[in-house]
Amino acid sequence: MSRVVPNCISVLLAALAVMSCSDEPRPVVATKHPQSKPAAAPKADGDLVVTPVRFPFSGATLEPNIVADRDGGFLVSWIEKSTTGFIFAPYRGGSWFQPRMIAHGRLLVNKADFPSIAVAPEGTLYAQWLEGKGESTSIRVAQSTDNGATWSTPLRPHADVAGEFGFASLLPAADRSTHLVWLDASAAEKTSEQALYAATIDANGKLSADSTVIDPRVCDCCQTAAAMTSDGPIVAYRDRSSDEVRDISIVRLTASGWTQPKTLHADGWKIAACPVNGPQLDANGRNVVAAWFTAAGGRPRVNVAFSSDSGATFGAPVTVDDGQPAGHVDVAFVDDGSAIVTWVERNGDGGRIEARRVRADRTRGNAVIVAEVTSANAVGFPRLAVSKQNVAVVWNGGGTEPSVRMATIQSSTK
């Protein structure tokens, strides 16, 4: 990837009077967002405590995402509505640092398929986003080796044809390469089906010559998920059988290549449409945790299952919701080997984001309400990240001028 230097985004964020494009981000002074309220008191239920975090940047902000950095902090990304800019800002030690632009102008705003950042073990940043309009979309991937001050010229991992491409997952590896999986419509003109593809970007930013078809028929618009085990990458996605059963499948990258798709759990959810509700994964060594939504048998539920062999097999799932889930799950391991799962629960005309601790022995902690929301759909897809001892979640805030919302989660038993 060749390198380009972006303009600083002071022209985009009026809250910041002066900005720098140096490698090291500087702290910013929090400014009041029109939709912001003073942080509420921490909320506790069982073994989890939720504390709201003020998002300090002005303007309408959409489709937040979050990833752990290597130092116990987080990189929070979002789309700035007025410029359609893909922006991120570090959050460390309770302080926000100056935002930086990744891309802008032609980004496609989609609450289900939103941009993301991945942090490689040695610190390289990777970013993916969508460009296009309507039903013709294209994935873009860029790389930064200077903490996001500059980004490489974006590359397109798929064929240059009209169609729907998206729902990409990035997975950096220890050898400085990065694995990329996505939903691909290259053959849709002939088959009217989406496929799951994979490719690799090497340490120099060069895309592998040939992409790989992992599964030729998958659900059209559910998110993919990827995690790195000590035995290599694992990917989860919503599959699609010939008779429209859309359960979650798992594939793994081994020395022999990608494994054949394997059903994570036979829910038997038969639905003749995409539910727009993908799975999520996390890994720690050979331990893997998966979370997903299903409505098999007409009963909506959020399930979590664990593996101790890098995802080759999973134990029986445990249901974690409170009876009226909308799904939109995320999950991550914490330092004691348990996992925290988040999801959206319906509540009359509104909804709430909930979190719960789950253990590999299928025991559950009490659920805690992360946030009350006016609509289970408007909240989008809350995203969770764990960085050393710190846990944080971000989501879409509603209102006439929507903004990113964020909270931290701590264990009240420590």
Structure overview:
- With 414 residues, this protein is mainly beta.
- It has a single domain, classed as Neuraminidase (6 Propeller).
- Helices cover 1% and strands 46% of the residues.
- It has one helix and 32 strands.
- The radius of gyration is 20 Å and the shape is globular.
- The model is unreliable at 2-22 and 29-40 (pLDDT under 50).
Summarize the structure.
Helices cover 1% and strands 46% of the residues. It is mainly beta and 414 residues long. The chain has one domain (3-411): Neuraminidase (6 Propeller).
Main attributes of the structure:
mainly beta, five-stranded antiparallel beta sheet, 414 residues, Neuraminidase, single chain, 1% helix, 46% strand, 32 strands
Secondary-structure map:
Layout: E1 3-4, E2 43-45, E3 48-53, E4 61-68, E5 74-80, E6 85-92, E7 95-96, E8 100-104, E9 116-119, E10 125-133, E11 136-144, E12 151-152, E13 166-172, E14 178-184, H1 188-191, E15 194-201, E16 212-218, E17 225-229, E18 232-238, E19 248-254, E20 257-258, E21 262-263, E22 280-284, E23 287-294, E24 301-307, E25 318-319, E26 325-333, E27 339-347, E28 350-358, E29 368-373, E30 383-387, E31 390-396, E32 404-411
Antiparallel strand pairs: 1-12, 2-3, 3-32, 4-5, 5-6, 6-7, 6-8, 9-10, 10-11, 13-14, 14-15, 15-16, 17-18, 18-19, 19-20, 19-21, 22-23, 23-24, 24-25, 26-27, 27-28, 28-29, 30-31, 31-32
